[in-house]
Specification:
- The protein has 2 domains: 31-338, Alkaline Phosphatase, subunit A; 347-505, no CATH class.
- Helices cover 30% and strands 14% of the residues.
- The protein contains 14 helices and 12 strands.
- Residues 31-316 form the Sulfatase N-terminal domain.
- Residues 1-25 form the signal peptide.
- This is Sulfatase.
Length: 506
Amino acid sequence: MMTFFNKQTTLLILLLLISGCFAEAASQQKPNILFCIADDQSFVHTSAQGTAELNTPNFDRVAKSGVIFNNAYTNVSSCAPSRASILTGRNIWELEEGGLLFGGLPKKYTTFSTLLSQNGYSTGYSGKGYMPANQKEPYQIRPLAPEFNDIKMDAPKNMSNKDYAENFNAFLSSKEEGKPFFFWFGSHEAHRGYDAGSGARAGKDISKIEVPGFLPDNELIRNDIADYYNEIEWFDSHLGRMIKALEEAGELENTIIIVTADNGMPFPRAKGTCYDYGTHMPLAICWGNKIKGGNHVDDFISFTDFAPTLLEAAGIAVPEDITGNSFLEVLLSNKSGQIDPKRDRVFTALERHTYCRPGGAPYPIRTIRKGDWLYMLNFEPDRWPSGNPDFASPHQGFYGDIDAGPSREYLIVNKDEASVKFYADLSLKKRPEVELYNVKEDPYQLHNLASDDSYANLCIELKTDLFAYLKKTNDPRMQGESPWDNYPYFFEGFEKEHLKPVKERQ
C-alpha cells in the first residue's frame, strides 16, 4: 500500500512539474510581430478618429482590441529616412546618409529586424520595404528582411498590383514551423499618384470631406483628398485579410500587430515638413489578451522607440547605441491617458527630402513637440522650404519637396489670387528662423507665435530642451556642421554629375 501511494505521489509531482514547465515555456513564448505601415497617411485619417467618408474597419479593430496612441510621431516626414529611423531606433541626424531620401543606410547601423533574425525569428516583408535608397555596397544590402512580392493581383488603377495579403500567406506557409516571426507589411498606398476621381466613384460624398485649414476648401482639393482616402482603404483591406490569416493559423493571440504610417499625407504643408500633418502619425497596437482593449494613451511615442520596444518584447538585449526608449511598459499598462509623465515630448527633423535646390542643398529643421507646443528651428531660412520655384527636382519638379498632384498644382497656378494667396504662401514662401505654435488651439499651425514677446521665455525654454537633446545625441548641426550637403542622391536616371559631392561639382 505504501509503495502504491509513493508511486502515485511521485507521478503527481512529475505531472505538476511537467505542467509547470509547459506553463513556463508558454509564458516565455516569443511573440510574433506584424508591422503594418501605410505610405503617406496623417494621424487623423482613420475612421477610429472620426474622419468622415473614410472607412478603416481593420485599423479600428486593432485599436478597439488594443491601444490607440494619440501622440505618435515619426522622426522625419520623408519615407526612406523615416523607415531607417524605425529600423535602427536612431534619429536621422545619427544615421549619416541613412537620414536622407534616396540615400543609403551604412552597415554599422544594425536594424532590429536583423537582430530578430539573428535570434531565432523568421522574417519577411511584402510591399514597400526600406526605400527609396541605395541597397548596394557599401550600404546595407538587406536592412529589412527577405522579400515576398511575387504574388500579384488585379488592383485598382494607380495602386500597386502586389497582393500583400497573399504574399503574407506565402510567408506563413514557408517559414520554419515553431519559429516566431516578424513580417513587415509596407503598403505603397496612399502614396501618389492617384486615379483622379476614384474617391467620388467609390461613393464618397465630396461635400462631407473635411479640408485641413492649411489648404483652400474647394471641390478640387476635396476630390484630391477623397482619392487619398480611397488608397488608405486599400491598405486597410489588406490589413484585414492578414488578421484573418493569423486567426486561421491560430497565431493571432500571440502576435503583436502594429498599424501606422511612415509620414503624413502627400499634400502641401504636410509630407516633407515638420508640421503636425507631416509628422503626427496614426498608431494602433494590439497583442492578444496581453492588452486590455480600447485604451487611448496620450504618452508621446517617437518612431525611434519601436526598435527597443519590439526587441524587449522578444526578450532580446537592446543595443546600447540605440537612442529610442522602449514603451513596452506603457503598452502593457492597460490604462488610458498619460501613463509615463516623462513621455511629454518628441523630437523631429528634416534634412534633404528631394533634390530641389541648387547643389542638392537640404532644408535643415529641428523641432521639439512638447505638451501642446511645437517649437521649430529652421537653420537655413533663406532657402526655399518646399524647393526652389525655378529649380526642377528630377523627382517632383518645381517646389519639389511637395509631391506633385492636383493640390500642389492648384496652389502654384493660383498663388497670386486673393482667395488662394494665404494658403500658397503657407506652403511655398520662405519661413522665419523660429516658429512656435500652440497645437491644441491651432491644430493646423497657421499662427506663428515666435515673435510675440509674451512667449519669449517659452521659446527660450523649448530651445534649451531641444539643444540639450541634440547635443546629447551628437547632432552635427550643434557643431555648425552639415555633412548632408555632400551626400549623394541615388535617384534612378539622375545625372552622374549630380552624384558627386558638392566640393567636386564646384
